[in-house]
Design goal:
The structure is a single chain. The chain is mainly β and 114 residues long. It has a single domain, classed as Jelly Rolls (Sandwich). The chain contains no helices and eleven strands. 23% of the residues are buried. The mean pLDDT is 90.
Length: 114
């Protein structure tokens, strides 16, 4: 488990647990969690499983409910926020080795993608 700003990541699949090509993680956004703008150099897929979220992909805002999926193209700026008083849960998928660039930062390979 990895704890970030107003969010928790649980690794479901990654090289360190046997996957060679795909990383899957469960994401829990705390109530009222702000979006954290970032870019990935590979496609991301996010499925909302509980609660509600606001996704912003390349400047386009979309309200998401359980069962909704957002597909984020490579290098598109993306953020996921929770504007409710209840937690939001999602499953996120990225290819192994994808690099994430935080807003204003440098590309990095997060520990949950190793």
């Amino acid at each position: 488990m990895f704890r970030g700003r107003e969010r928790t990541f649980n690794v479901l699949a990654a090289p360190r647990v046997g996957s060679s090509e795909t990383c899957v993680r469960r994401v829990r956004l705390d109530p009222d969690a702000e979006g954290v703008p970032h870019r990935a150099d590979r496609e991301q897929i996010v499925l909302i499983t509980a609660g509600a979220a606001i996704a912003i992909v390349a400047g386009v805002r979309d309200a998401l409910l359980p069962g909704d999926t957002v597909i984020v193209p490579p290098d598109a700026e993306f953020s996921l926020a929770n504007a409710t008083s209840e937690p939001c849960e999602a499953v996120a998928v990225l290819p192994v080795g994808a690099k994430i660039t935080p807003d204003g930062g440098v590309p990095e390979l997060p520990a949950w993608l190793e």
